[in-house]
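Q: Can someone sanity-check these two? First one:
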Amino acid sequence: MPELPEVETIKNDLKKYLLNKTITKILIYSKKLKYKISKKLLNLKKQKIIKIKRYSKYIVINTNKGFILIHLGISGNIFILNKKIPKSKHDHIDILTNEKKIIRYNDIRKFGFWLWFNKKKKIKNIISKLGPEPLTKKLNTNYLYNITKKKKICIHQLIINQKIISGIGNIYANESLFLAKIIPNKPSCLIKKNKIKLLIKKIKLILKKSIKLKGTININKKYLNKNTGYFQKKIMVYKRNKKKCLICKKKIKSIKKNGRTLYFCNTCQK
């Protein structure tokens, strides 16, 4: 699932190729993703893109005639094409610009969504339910410790809860907990305050590093936004089950918990 660094990377690509451009055509190939695709999206034809922002895992495209709220779900991705390429089975939406760029939404599992709103207030109502952005000062030791000390759920489950911290998913939860030397299935209430402080430091560090390396998404070379996904070369534990720990050389282990696979080193993490 695309997490904060991947969504930030896509948002930056969209700003590069879409900001201040005029939408000349919108093609909708599917009736429904997670939610029904509104035909009101077609109203954005001939509209200028004013702003493009990211909130947690959401992208908001602002025109002078409404807003598009995008969530990539589990398998969603946005590709940028320099020329028309025949759509594939899992391509659902194309936006064409006056500079003949094509913004294409692809989603194999169709859990993502594109919603149209005529008022920003409706988007704020959705965003306001999210926890603090991890790269802001709102995510601090006192905030997270006051939550963890009251919770018996495992720390991995807690930090991927979007109502507690927004933008973190399984990849960066596993990586951050490894760097903080905290085993992911440890009950949150048992983690000391100094460890929570270290965890926050590592969360911010790993997210910044991934954003700099453009996340973990692989994009085919036929797209303009092809240079992404370098962070996967820096992965320490995620999907490295049975491989040697890069620190102690013991084997990485994995367990299933709450529908997620947790990866960890039994020696380095306690």
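And here is the second, same format, sequence then tokens:
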Amino acid sequence: MASCFCVKNTSPGTPSNAACEPNQLPPPLARVVTLALAIAAVLGTGVSAASPGATPAPSPDAYAAQRQRMVEEQIRSRGVTDPRVLRAMLTVPRHRFVPDEYLSQAYADRPLPIGYGQTISQPYIVALMSAEADVRSGERALEIGTGSGYQAAILAELTDQVYTIEIIQPLARAAARRLRDLGYVRVRTRIGDGYLGWPEAAPFDAILVTAAPDHVPPPLLAQLREGGRMVVPVGPPGLVQTLWRITKKGGKLEFTNLGSVLFVPLVRP
């Protein structure tokens, strides 16, 4: 549901071996090539007049270079160096989580609108929260505010136990489909009030809240496992908020200030 940004931060000429078009070939051969092309068009095999029967190479990831720059220039350079988090940020196709009109900005250093007054967070913030939550393989993670599903996909690269809640139904349904289509079939999704958490799946080793409440929700603290970490922005809507890491140790809560941020407010019923 949420998001945020960090406040502080063909060469000229014709080659001699150019392929013939079908109407330049002897009639019997032309008919064979034409038939092959027609079949290829239906089957999607990618056969061309220049290379009948060839198997095309897989399409390269057009956004791989942009993801690499994002990680190096926006994330690693700002101090997020956890190799697991960097690998996740390099792996997840962020452009699949933004509206089509913002594809050209998918890897920009800023949040982007996803509809319903919500945004997908700035890449640095996603990486920072993931690193601070310190999610390990096999641990159980809860996200409050699914939004487009990007943060949940990052978490799913870190552990196979991810739960995510979104209160805005169209966003929740679209995110669930998107995550499934991308292969993140183990991410559990729910439409509901994130303030209340997911008690029947508790306790959680990590809880990430991707929208800002004006106080830390007690139900979420109660669902945090001993030794667990919560990363949550707290503060009034529309104003600068504080991003906190809360660690439960010996039944007590330790608060670490991670800096100033600006998130959309946590939506309640």
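A (reply): Looked at the second one. The beta strands are 4-6, 112-115, 118-120, 140-144, 161-166, 188-191, 204-209, 224-234, 241-249, 252-263. The radius of gyration is 24 Å.
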